[in-house]
Amino acid sequence: MRRVSTPATNADIFPDTARIGSDGHLAVGGCDLVALAAQHGTPLYVYDEASIRARAGQYREALARVYPGRVTVCYAAKAYCAPWILRVVADEGLGLDVVSGGELHAARVVGFPMDRVYFHGNNKSADELALAFAASVGRVVVDNREEIDRLATLARDRGVRQAVLLRVGPGVAAHTHAHLQTGAADTKFGLDIASGAAADGLRDILARRELELRGLHMHLGSQIADTEAYREGVERLFRFAAEMRAGARLVLREVSPGGGFAVRYGPDETPVDTPRMVGDVGRVVLAAARSHGFADPLPDLTIEPGRALVATAALALYRVGSVKRTGARTYAAVDGGMADNIRPTAYDARYTAVLAARANDAADATVTVAGRYCESGDILIREARLPLPRAGELIAIPVSGAYHLSMASNYNQVPRPAVVVVAEGRARLVRRRETYDDLLSLELDERQEREAARD
Hints:
Blueprint: E1 2-3, E2 19-20, E3 26-28, E4 31-32, H1 33-40, E5 44-48, H2 49-66, E6 71-76, H3 83-91, E7 95-98, H4 101-109, E8 117-119, H5 126-135, E9 139-142, H6 145-158, E10 162-169, E11 191-192, H7 197-206, E12 211-217, H8 228-248, E13 254-256, H9 274-291, E14 300-303, E15 314-326, E16 329-334, H10 343-347, E17 354-355, E18 365-370, E19 379-386, E20 394-398, E21 418-423, E22 426-431, H11 436-440, H12 446-454
Parallel strand pairs: 5-21, 6-7, 6-14, 7-8, 8-9, 9-10, 10-11, 10-12, 12-13, 13-14, 16-18
Antiparallel strand pairs: 1-2, 2-3, 3-4, 5-15, 15-16, 15-20, 17-20, 18-19, 21-22
Helix pairs in contact: 2-9, 4-5, 5-6, 8-9
């Protein structure tokens, strides 16, 4: 087998272990994708465990090389939350960002170390915060002043002192899609520095003996490909910290500049050296800490690479149902689409593709890969360069590991896909395909409706 490296595919877009066999079949983790689709059906998501572990190691090492203080790399569960991947993340020594009670519950079920869990979110419910206390999460990242009251009450009632970080809004617009910006002046996340809201929130926390303010957090967005926005955001964060040190006696023990590093989805996009970016952000934090007098001791540093940990580790496999030419466009309709990958519809996200059984063939046709759902906007790839597909063939779409399954739905009452994980020539099914009965399992029949009404 040879590494995926043709101009039509580009190796860095595929999992590290992706290879093309002498028969032209694409394989990942030593497993033939055509065989996997025959065994498990389609749509099918295939994750390469080796790629995830490699990214985790690269980011840990890149940060440790440049930052002399304590460092933590966190996985964002919202990118894709499943028991198997949380176990891998825990085994790699990473932290975990959760944004809901459901993600926290998944972490508890697999025994994820709670001292490495950070609970984020702009509107955590009272029940979710109670769950966080019951689980003894390491940090709650405070987003608003109302949350401070809820946290203090819960901590007082339970006789504990909860460690928190304050999420501040630096007012920096990163170069990314508008829907992916989280640190601009107009955002629903955190308390902004410019208006004084962050200072008020910080003082509120310090006034509550039940809360231990460990430090500050910011997040600029997702799919960020350069460090300029981080440089400006980190400078504003440390400037604010210095002001609060003087005015409110802040002790900065921890700091997080967020993350959201970009990944490349198609061959026409500029390659991103994510480990280098991780290191660059670490250097930016170190320089700002020294410049503003926070170098002795340095605060603990946490980064959140986001999708960069898992996006390129997975492919989505679809079966072509029909190929038709309409006007100047050729449509290849597949058995998945916007219900398992909403990103092209929501963000105009662009992907590339290959034919899993003819990965060596010349890409001599321009094809629109259309989903099966009853929406005109259900288009996975507007213009894919492929060998002209035939009905029954498999289309593999790389960079499918993040924000596909976590945002999946049952639109049109279609079951969600199965998931397999491959490693060293072995494939294991980690999520079975949903059935039609699964889709109705939460609905009440007439008898159950009457019983519910009596209750």
